Amino acid sequence: MFRFVRFTIFGCLLALTACNPGTTPKTSVYEVTGSSAKRVAEVSAIITKHQAPPTAILDAYFLEEQIGDGILGPSDFRTFYVVEVAPQDVARWTMLLTPLEATAEYSAPAQPPAWWIAQDALGSLQFYKPDLLTGSANGWVGVEPQTGRIYVFTFTM
Question: Residue 60, class by beta-carbon neighbours within 10 Å (0-12 exposed, 13-18 middle, 19+ buried)?
Fold first, then answer.
């Protein structure tokens, strides 16, 4: 009996040392890089998984952050991308989207790239639900009609 109790206590202590709340989860970043044509091709392929782009994409940027390694527990993802279309084509994109009823909260990558929107410019965007373009219900699509820039932010929980 004593041996069983001693083994149980040892197992509990071992489990407690494995759960170190002071450690941060592993974070990795994937960014689509290269020429404009390469970026457009890769981002178009991502969008096409959910919806065919209604017009030509002139330029595109994509960055995904993964928090957690997916091995010792789940991983969460945050994606940020920008699709640039001709300003006259913006209406064809927004026709596909559902307006967002709630106020969109600003989010940016841990190391924001130059192409991501600044927090003080967020008010200039028209917001829509991301599900049709991304397959995710979490996040937002922000459209800047004057420039033809479509910002997309999604996340997993």
Answer: buried
